[in-house]
Design goal:
The chain is globular. It contains ten helices and no strands.
Length: 276
């Protein structure tokens, strides 16, 4: 699964960068999403593979802090990129004649940089919060990676303020982009319904199908993990949902975008033939 994730997302980045016809805002954001998926998966899966091969489930304190930092960074970045991509589709469908004027290279680059900066702030907040916790000599995390919310539950010190902070930040980082996505799609659907021809409606909505699938897959599993109660009966379900959004979602995103996109498929075939 990790190899498929790496190969699929790298092929999308290669296809977008090598084909001048794909040098548009939509594919620029898609290539950044692919890079984020690679980074998110690489934060967790290599350590899991090492643990499986060595039959050891341990992780160092420094390794755990590193995982918390990069997981927060790339998880937040993916959430924000999905929101930016929803706005891109909103402009493309509702204002097609001004699309390239509004979504100019400067704005696209600024959106990605701002998303990365917000993700960096979120990761530093998680790092500082976890690094100040006091743990007992031996801590067993009921998951396959260092989940900040579970680390708070395992700390020996008082974490009531930290719990409030992590949920407030989670609502902001997840809720605001999700609200933006919902608002964008409400506008998109209302605009599509005004199109008289059925073929025009299908063509307009087909450009959003892949993004909508990726949004449902990422937010559905991530919110399931984040909002699930931290009781022993839900730990197994939480671990399964964690696998979905940290391993399965990055693997499936290339398939979601390639199977429904003729431009990406043709560009990928050209890249594969060039490599072969």
């Amino acid at each position: 699964m990790y190899l498929v994730t790496m190969l699929g997302n790298l092929l999308i980045i290669l296809a977008v960068s090598s084909d001048s016809r794909l040098h548009t805002p939509m594919y620029f954001f898609l290539s950044n999403l692919s890079l984020t998926d690679i980074s998110l998966s690489s934060t967790i899966v290599p350590k899991v593979l090492v643990n499986l091969q060595t039959h050891s489930k341990s992780i160092t304190y420094a390794g755990c802090l590193t995982q918390v930092t990069f997981l927060s960074l790339f998880g937040c970045l993916e959430s924000l990129l999905l929101a930016v991509m929803a706005y891109d589709r909103l402009v493309a469908i509702c204002q097609p004649l001004r699309y390239l004027v509004i979504m100019n290279p400067r704005l696209c680059g600024l959106c990605v940089l701002l998303s990365f900066f917000i993700g960096l702030l979120d990761s530093q907040m998680h790092y500082l919060m976890v690094s100040q916790l006091n743990f007992c000599a031996y801590v067993e995390i009921p998951n396959f990676f260092c989940d900040p919310s579970q680390l708070l539950n395992l700390a020996c010190s008082d974490t009531s303020n930290n719990n409030i902070l992590i949920y407030c930040v989670g609502v902001l980082i997840g809720g605001i982009p999700l609200s933006g996505i919902l608002f964008s799609y409400i506008r998109i659907v209302s605009s599509i319904l005004r199109v008289p021809a059925t073929e025009g409606k299908y063509k307009a909505f087909s450009t959003c199908g892949s993004h909508l699938s990726a949004v449902c897959l990422f937010y559905g599993t991530a919110l399931g993990v984040y909002l699930s109660p931290t009781v022993s009966s839900s730990l197994r379900k939480g671990a399964v949902a964690s696998v979905m959004y940290t391993v399965v979602t990055p693997m499936l995103n290339p398939f979601i975008y390639c199977l429904r996109n003729r431009d990406i498929k043709s560009a990928l075939w050209r890249v594969i033939r060039r490599i072969a």
